[in-house]
Amino acid sequence: MILVLRALGVGDLVTAVPALRALRAAYPSRELALAAPAWLAPLVDLVGGVDRLVDTAGLDRPIRVGAAPQVAVNLHGRGPQSHRLLAATRPGRLFAFANPEADHTDGPRWSADEHEVDRWCRLLSWYDIAADRADLDLRRPGAAGLPTGVTVLHPGSKVPAKRWPAERFAALARALSEQGHRVLLTGSADERALAGRVAEAAGLPSDAVLAGRTDLGALAALVAHARLVVSGDTGVAHLATAYGTVSVVLFGPVPPAHWGPPPDRPRHRVLWAGDGDWPRWDGVGSHPTMAALRLDAVLAAVAEVERLVRVSGAVAA
């Protein structure tokens, strides 16, 4: 068995797809077990190649896998806690970044300044496993009765600093609706109130709020068949990248060089104002780098990427 630890969220799983597929290719006859939260199961199915999902939410409980794995792979973090959690399964080998504190001196050094996709590809390269950082696409689910061709706005984030101000999302929703977009608002159950406030301010009907009403599989299908996605740096943005859905992603305070869509994918636009000299943030509301992103810049980015897709589609036809 090959045991992989990635006990995190949606974006974390999607950015680990090239590494997971590389491990599948390197060990085609071995069971590939992924230690990740059980609620990610619909998305794990869309990755493909994973034989078993071991419910692992965080690092505070042992990983229950039965027999010791031949190889344990830390795609979770730099250690030491994640290293020790995998070492407790008594693997034949541990693939992980070097961390003397966890008594693991093998592996490459951790670098804080690299893209999340490249980080895990580099780790596997150290152990002579080649990974293709462009291998990000997920299996496209059927629409299964969900609306298609819609514009998905995702105003929330589990990190409040990454949220674009709600009033600007409302203004964006209103402007796009006036341009003929059918706008739907997504989010978790905890973000339903936020999505409701955006919808009300934008003059959208209550049934435009899907926050808290879709499971992960339905959300993936909605994004896969959408016309456009606009969101902050969160899991929905990574789903848009995985499906080639036209998107505009608003970044701050974490730079897109660490988590953004690949620069060679023209269907995605990134807005980032983080290179300025910003005042000290008081920890309340949107981070200054997010508050600096103007509505007109977002609308311009939407128009630009949609125009590019129309032109490229016409050329291809």
Q: What does this entry show, briefly?
A:
The protein is of the alpha/beta class and 317 residues long. Helices cover 36% and strands 13% of the residues. The chain has helices spanning 10-15, 17-26, 41-47, 81-87, 116-126, 166-178, 192-202, 216-224, 235-243, 256-259, 288-291, 295-316, and strands at residues 2-5, 32-36, 52-55, 71-74, 93-95, 151-154, 183-185, 228-232, 247-251, 268-272.
Can you put this structure into words, describing what you see?
This protein is an alpha/beta fold and 317 residues long. 36% of the residues lie in helices and 13% in strands. It has twelve helices and ten strands. It has helices spanning 10-15, 17-26, 41-47, 81-87, 116-126, 166-178, 192-202, 216-224, 235-243, 256-259, 288-291, 295-316, and strands at 2-5, 32-36, 52-55, 71-74, 93-95, 151-154, 183-185, 228-232, 247-251, 268-272. β8, α9 (235-243) and β9 (247-251) form a beta-alpha-beta unit. α2 (17-26) runs parallel beside α5 (116-126), α6 packs across α7 (192-202) and α8 packs across α9 (235-243).
Key traits:
five-stranded parallel beta sheet, single chain, 36% helix, 10 strands, alpha/beta, 317 residues
Element layout with pairings:
Blueprint: E1 2-5, H1 10-15, H2 17-26, E2 32-36, H3 41-47, E3 52-55, E4 71-74, H4 81-87, E5 93-95, H5 116-126, E6 151-154, H6 166-178, E7 183-185, H7 192-202, H8 216-224, E8 228-232, H9 235-243, E9 247-251, H10 256-259, E10 268-272, H11 288-291, H12 295-316
Parallel strand pairs: 1-2, 1-4, 2-3, 4-5, 6-7, 6-8, 8-9, 9-10
Helix pairs in contact: 2-5, 6-7, 8-9
